[in-house]
Design a protein that fits this description.
alpha/beta, 3-stranded mixed sheet, 8 strands
């Protein structure tokens, strides 16, 4: 369990990646927090069940949980390891599709797994993709490469993705959760 003291008015209980996280107002005693947790045991169990169904990948590397001391170290690991994997995957999919990116950059992004600029051939990949399993990273690489040929998400685009990765739609669905 992790307790975070904040400038808030009441106690908030969450479950993130299997861990109970309690946000409490500054000055709240540990004994009072324990009483609130005890009173909400059944709700906490419900939250744990819901969290287990969410496919969270916080502090994961390629789908496997890792222990890291701080966010800066985690980002460094993500960047290094993701770059190595992307080099291999882009080479693989550029070879089989005949499509080639002019540059691939890893960036922090809030919403997208990747972006492609067909006119320049530049592709950006979200740093957080390092948390996801390899097959999902492969699907994003293929997706962005196919955008070099098809700008829209139309039938031709999806057919091209499926041509090189028959289970593409199933993987894409997992990426959206």
């Amino acid at each position: 369990m992790k307790i975070i003291k904040k400038k808030i008015k009441s106690i908030i209980i969450k479950v993130e990646d299997g861990e109970v996280v309690v946000s409490a107002p500054h000055g709240t005693s540990k004994s009072y927090i324990d009483k609130v947790l005890d009173k909400n045991k059944s709700r906490i169990e419900e939250l744990k069940t819901l969290d287990a169904k969410k496919n969270r990948f916080k502090n994961h590397l390629f789908g496997e949980k890792i222990e890291v001391d701080n966010e800066k170290d985690l980002e460094k690991i993500y960047r290094t390891r993701l770059k190595a994997v992307l080099d291999i995957l882009f080479e693989k999919y550029e070879k089989i599709t005949g499509l080639k990116a002019t540059s691939v950059n890893i960036r922090k992004m809030k919403v997208r797994w990747g972006t492609c600029y067909p006119a320049s051939g530049k592709i950006n990949i979200n740093l957080k993709l390092a948390e996801r399993p390899i097959d999902e990273i492969e699907a994003v690489v293929l997706h962005e490469l196919v955008h070099l040929k098809y700008g829209n998400h139309d039938k031709k685009f999806y057919n091209e993705c499926i041509k090189y990765m028959p289970n593409y739609l199933e993987i894409e669905k997992r990426l959206k959760t």
